[in-house]
């Protein structure tokens, strides 16, 4: 069951994820040429690059159950060690390849090194390992809940990357580069808080769901702690964004500063939105989680498609405004479920 999963559950999830990962990689491998058509033949080299980068899906499929076991059992120290080691080694690889003249291949390799090292370390830290048993009954039992989470995750990825895609298509690679630099520093900052809170919030909220008052008390403490970290961090980054960009990536990227300042205003509520959505999930309402995220995705894609002729800054401003608006949507859903 979802409160106390067994070895049989973890084993079923492992083999199911591996099969799905292989199928997705094959599908994406043969779909890669469509990217050239979408980007109007601006980047023909994207096909081999995409096929190489898509290997991350296959590698990650090997570690889903190990990660879930560590997550469920609050082994945050081991998760942090794996992630930090993978980040360090992947960054060293990316920088070395970039200095060696490998260009965009260094970015793709950096991500592959990260997922490979992280996967190996998760296997090392997790005492659970798969068995050669093909029993998918637990997957069928969980499917009613989990398919909604899967679709929601896909929609979230679309939300996070829609401006990246439209910027390259409509504004060219230079402006896309400015946006990407702003987005990556903003996302690194809010993801730091988001990851720190999520590793604890979801398992704790699920364990306490039989006692509504204790769960609500823990949730309020998590909200206060998240806000206490997120707002100073993101608004502080906004305050020093000019100096930060010059020191880290140089003056040639100064055009990304106004975009970073805007994104930081939205980034400070992202960890809170994640925490609120975790509370919705802990109540077993993956349907609400799905529809709220899909509605956000459709609104965002529609807004970006309408606003791109007005310029990149307008698009980013609308994205930030929508992020703040959806904080209150999640808040109302949580209030409805908890009273």
Summarize the structure in words.
83% of the residues lie in helices and 0% in strands. With 339 residues, the chain is mainly α. Helix 8 (137-207) packs across helix 13 (286-307) and helix 13 (286-307) runs antiparallel to helix 14 (312-338).
State the gist of this model.
The chain is mainly α and 339 residues long. The chain is 83% helix and 0% strand.
Structural class category: mainly alpha
**Residue share in helix:** over 70%
- What integer value in Å does the Rg equal? 21 Å
| CA-based shape | globular
Mean pLDDT, nearest integer? 84
> Strand-and-helix sequence, N→C?
HHHHHHHHHHHHHH
N-end to C-end Cα span: 26 Å
Q: How much strand?
A: under 5%
Topology overview:
Elements: H1 7-31, H2 33-38, H3 46-53, H4 55-60, H5 64-72, H6 76-99, H7 104-125, H8 137-207, H9 212-239, H10 241-248, H11 257-267, H12 270-282, H13 286-307, H14 312-338
Helix pairs in contact: 1-5, 3-7, 6-7, 8-9, 8-11, 8-12, 8-13, 9-11, 9-12, 11-14, 12-14, 13-14
